[in-house]
Amino acid sequence: MNRRLGSAFIAVGLLAGCGGVTEAELSTPEPTQTQAETTPLTSLDVDVAPECEGILDFVNRATYATLDFYLPSNVASGIVNRRVTTPFVSIEDISAIPQVAEARLKEIEKGARAEGYLSPNCIGIYDELALSVDDSSSILHLVNSISSTELHDMLPNAWTGATNLLNTRPFETIQAVSNTSGIGIVSLRHIRNAATLSRPLENLAYELDQLSSNGSHGGKLARHFDWWTTMRNDIRGAYGRTDVECFGIDEDRIPADGPTLRANLATPADVLARFEYTVQVSDRYNVVPQPLKDAAKANLVNLSAGRSFVGCSYSFEKDPWSGDTVEFFYDPADGFGIWTHTYWSE
Known about the structure:
Elements: H1 3-16, H2 54-61, H3 64-70, H4 73-85, H5 91-95, H6 102-114, E1 122-126, E2 129-132, H7 133-145, H8 148-154, H9 159-168, H10 174-179, H11 185-196, H12 199-210, E3 217-222, H13 227-236, E4 243-247, E5 260-262, H14 268-282, H15 290-304, E6 310-316, E7 322-330, E8 337-345
Parallel strand pairs: 4-5
Antiparallel strand pairs: 1-2, 3-8, 4-6, 6-7, 7-8
Helix pairs in contact: 1-2, 2-6, 3-4, 3-6, 7-11, 12-15, 14-15
């Protein structure tokens, strides 16, 4: 039985008891070793990576005496009293205990690590996110390579933080990212989600990019993109007419003259339809394995649910014998979106 399930069963047992609760009844034997987790990246919008769930096991299972060794007595008591009723299931849960904030969470992490609840695969808690080593690597790669356009779209309420990240990078540690002025709990979570939650989409985009063009039709897909620079360059380099329609983006941000502005935003169904068309055009001969396509589609459907998307659709001609169409979509709340490009040539 893994520790997470063990914690849940322990909590159920506590709730089933009658009368007073003693310290012995609140605890189970402490672990002698930590089982390694196998999940390479956090794939859900949670605040505890699978490799870091030992933090939850620590607060749910450690004796009062153990908690009191690492924490102030009133905090240890608060943890014990709370878990009698409901087990802790998130960092947010733990933070709800009085006098528990970032510094106290670090003390809890330290205790969990010292008592053998955590493996080295959990790098620690930063801005109330418990991150794995692989999460950290993905975040650093994204922050060090992302375009200014995408980063500011990803952090709509932390533009100063985005600017500071761009001006300070490259970063070598998550601590340095977390310490950046203007980056906090919400913004780091947006960055983590962008770095880890859409890997199936990114894998498909990579495979489509490796396909050889058949010379007459083709397409490209991207999860991370600089729509502003790409659009400006496409329109500047166009041979003939360009048609631009945008929705939800301020006109002064659009690098095109006289775009058509549409009132209604794109829906998840609109995004999915364009995704499916782009994949069909890009892989007309079904070279890319179907399971990889299915995983990417499921990933997109899951991450798009309940969202509204802003974006643009524009067509341009590079010469008299070809045509290109670009459509991109992103959620202005956190920047999640996709960019698509299809083309034909005689």
